[in-house]
Amino acid sequence: MAQTQQQETGLALFNKTITNPKTQEYLSQVLGERKGSFVNNLTALVANEASLQKCLPLTVMFAALKATALNMPLDKSLGMAFVIPYKDNKNNVTVAQFQIGYKGFKQLALRSGMFAIIPNATDVKEGELLSRNRLSGECKFQFIDNDVERSKKKTIGYASYFKLLNGAESTLYMSTEELEAHALRYSQTYRSKDPKIKSSSKWTTDFSDMASKTVIKLNLSRNAPLSVELQDAIKADQSIQFDKDDTRYLDSDKQEEIDLEKAQAVAEKFADFEDVTNQQQ
Questions:
Q1: Residue 40 pLDDT > 60
Q2: 161: which strand partners?
Q3: How far apart are CA 250 and CA 240, in angstroms?
Q4: Paired strand residues for 115
Q5: Closest CA to 1 of 133, 92, 132, 126
Q6: What distance in Å separates the CA atoms of residue 33 and residue 273, rounded to the nearest whole number?
Q7: For 72-127, what is each residue's pLDDT tens digit?
């Protein structure tokens, strides 16, 4: 049934789903007066992104709702939040995954009002890391001032730093090898043996951005007091939501925690929803 549903996806199906009375009623309950602008913006986004038209429409909608809940624009040029198509080979469907960019985490930290210096990240070039205390996590750097000379050096890692209003500071450094291992552990697309799938991973196309995001996110989650909004963002990042009670993390080792029977029922639940849609056209 999942295969049939995948063949039927497209802009027309998305439009049917988003205008379905059940969908409209749910969006009214969740968004209130903001429903109209949400639907218009989301419809325009999908219309302009052919890759999103291949996704199960409800996963696109719920990903966009996560961005709205966090007050994050989905404009790629801003780099705060993204809706990423993800091929779920297990269920033979393409779904939409919500991802937060490193600029998004910086924005959320700024909103919290707890930081004297908001979390930042930088690449670290060969010769810039002077020492690293693996017990305390303390690192000492001497960064090259000349940008031209610096650009010629090999990148050996990435570092994140923040300072709280109470004076507490935290630096997290990860080598490129550690970040590579992180990507291979948590991204199924990046560790795929299929070159086409691997090439679609953001770890392949935007390694620097993903590395910056990773050191900022880990530094925050491990060492910073987290506002409710930051907690919600960390939970929402890399999630795929099929309905209001079904959120999963297909692109990480968390997939092992999924109830297989529940996973198999996803396509059937969506098909049931589409049956209602068709009956009401």
A1: yes
A2: 120, 171
A3: 7
A4: 164
A5: 92
A6: 25
A7: 999 988 999 999 988 777 778 889 999 999 999 999 999 999 999 999 999 999 99
Contact yes or no for 240/85 (Cβ under 8 A): no
Q: For residues 144 and 114, give the distance between their C-alpha atoms in angstroms, rounded to a whole number.
A: 30
Domain boundaries, the chain: 2-99+239-279, 115-224
For residues 2 and 204, the model is more confident at 204
Of the two residues 257 and 103, the one the predictor is more confident about is: 103
DSSP 95-143: EEEEEE-HHHHHHHHHHHT-EEEEEEEEEEETTTEEEE-TTT--EEE--
Triad 59, 218, 179: Cα angle to 5°: 90
Query: 83: which 2 tokens?
Result: 């809706």
Nearest to 271 by CA among 242, 248, 239, 247: 242
**Which stretch of DSSP H or E encloses residue 87?**
strand 81-88
Instruction: Assess contact for 125 and 153: CB atoms under 8 A.
Output: yes
- pTM comes to 0.79
The overall longest dimension of the chain from CA atoms, in Å, is 67
Say which residue, 165 or 247, is predicted with more confidence: 165
Residue 76: count of CB within 10 angstroms of its CB: 13
The pLDDT confidence band at residue 278, using thresholds 50, 70 and 90, is: very low
Q: Position 246: which residue type? A: D
Per the model's pLDDT, the better-predicted residue between 5 and 47 turns out to be 47
Say which residues have a Cβ less than 8 Å from residue 194's Cβ, sequence separation at least 6: none
pLDDT at 257 (0 to 100): 36
Which residue has better confidence, 228 or 8?
A: 228
C-alpha 82/C-alpha 115 separation (Å) is 25
Residue 138, CA distances (Å) to 154, 178, 179, 253 in order: 22, 17, 18, 29
